[in-house]
Amino acid sequence: MGSITCGFIGLGLIGGSIARAIRENIPGATIIAYDINPEALSLAKETGVADSTCSSIDDSFSACDYLFLCAPVQKNDENLQAVKKVLSPNCLLTDVGSVKTGIHRAIKEAGLESQFIGGHPMAGSERVGFVNSKALLLQNAYYILTPTEKVPSEKVEAYRNLVEHLGALPLILNCEQHDYVTAAVSHLPHVIAASLVNLVRDSDSHDGIMKQIAAGGFKDITRIASSSAVMWQQICLTNTENIKGLLSDYIDVLCEIREQLDSSDADALYQLFDNARIYRDSFNNTSSGPIKRNYMLKLDIADEPGALAAIATILALNAISIKNIGIAHNREYEGGVLRIEFYDEASVERAKEILLGKGYTINERG
To answer: Per-residue pLDDT tens for 87-113?
Structure first.
């Protein structure tokens, strides 16, 4: 790609990760950033991610070829008014929000449809802020683009090319389709995970026996319940109709299952689990979906002193960082007693190769 100038309104986890990916993958790119957090801006300058920073949305951004709206969604209306005053006619405006219909409506009201392509990098982390941003966050992640009907096709193709250069996987949808799809595969699962965790909490005994044994499968399927409460509150309030519709469908399915249990319908219950197993096993085992996969290995170790420390030492001597490590006491759904989490796919593959070479047995079931 040629030399480009990219502006960022907001430089948190996602904005910072995109800026870092641009810095690493597009030599000669100029990056201008604004954020309400001066510490994020200082760190961006110190690390060389940003060439210049601004204390407000000013004329500095008029030089941009691409301008990324990465502030919280509730700030979009306010920021759009400021951006409109400084936006060059040749600049492509985009955002990174998880819900697209609202921003498209705001763009139409602002008269900026010919310059806007919605963006949703399906990447994230339990950590927040520029300090935790990293270029690898976008690697092999789906990056959904939602162009307006008025944006020129050459701008769509240029932006698609930019996203590919960042290591992400561009996928073009319209904004309504995006919001329905993400409601099904991301938003509703977060609602279900949170409600399931709360059900167990409210059903638990005073001595907390459910909590004590809630490992293995239960912990895996409810991992996303640890996500930001504020973020998911806002998603539910902005993609409400899609979530409500799919939630109603899910409630109907649960009612059907209850009827199958009432009638002891063995065939229907078998099909419930077998159909789910077949469809789930057909998923591509990558980190590119909206709910990020855990970079994890499970393996058997001897129940003896020093066994866990030996594995940690082997990995440390090979410069492989461990994110989390622990014994799975409840192995109802587990093939391995030890669970090791890493920070990226490359670490998983290196650890697997090394541990297999040392004679350890690794459970491949994901």
So the answer is: 999 999 999 998 999 999 999 999 999
